[in-house]
Amino acid sequence: MLYLNDFQDMKNKILANAIKAFNPLRLRVGGSLEDQTVYKVGLVTKCPHFKNNMNVRRFGFSNGCITMERWDQLNQFFNETGAKVTFVLNALRENKSENKNSTLWVGNWNKLNAQEFMKYTISKGYKIDSYELGNELSASGVFARVNAGQYGKDTIILSNLVKKLYANFSDQPKILGPGGFYDKEWFNKFLRVSGPGIVDGLTHHIYNLGAGNDPKLISRVQDPFYLDKIAQTFKSISESIKQYGPWTGAWVGESGGAYHSGGTNVSNTFADGFWYLDQLGMASTFDHKVYCRQVLIGGNYGLLNTTTFAHNPDYYGALLWHRLMGSRVLHDASPYLHSYAHCSKDSERGDITVLLINMSNSTTFVVNTVNDLNLFPSDHTELPPREEYHLTPEGRTFKAK
Which domain of life is it from (predicted)? Predict the structure, then answer.
């Protein structure tokens, strides 16, 4: 996800180069306020800005709007940086809360505003990799929720709309959902109702470290047994797909570790890499196809500094993972030495890339490889030297940035 304050942000070379380095980087456009967003296109004439309003139950903001001028600017930025775009649509457009004190929203999704938005997007030649319906509406939801059966029906409406509008495209946008926290009963029913060939990516969110202001946060990112607890969620998602949706794939649609903007002097430091890299390895072990980090810019958990766009430590971890680790997973972890081995990305020689994370603050592990011919290649071998990347905090300070 990406927060940009004004058009000048999109002219920043540090920001642009940070995105280009991934070639491509997926940007998820949406989030907490997505289900309060209207698109100023077609019959929509009023386009208010989001305003702080503590009388509003959903996140303390009034409803807001995105103009097509702003959408044009964003797509110019996406095109220049080669970003791959996932766009989250308002799932609560004209739906109604069950009653004044209820968080349950009822009624079929009104597709009209989204339809006009898609038509405009197509007319301008803007490429969307995937559309997702709503944000954090599954199970008990976050300030709002939709029943699994209703959400399944709404996702079918979205799928049919995309198939109709993109009928002449050989590469149609994928359909994602539900973009919320995993609940076995809710997710299973959603897959049953939506049925085969509708959902391309089953997206779920993870904030397994607790609140950003929790003083225990710094100890949690170093505790291998605490970090391993979330493995059950990854496993359960995989089981839901195997039983009810073998046509789809699991995605982590959003994860920042600690919610409420992450932890000060934790989420944006070297320490967070113990959680983040372990998450990437764990997600791959349980056959997840995509992992979206919250957030590129914004809060304490941004990969880039909010004001200077300087790279925080997790940016480098993400970049190395993206460049080195292939999609084939060979091995996973042990208690204090977490190890993840993949076939190397874009390798034709059968190379292997291994990620080793020492979760102990008192033990040094010695790792040897058997018959490693390319550690010190001689003049008689065509093998390149082995590459090693050592991630250490500046000044050996655990909270270094």
Answer: Eukaryota
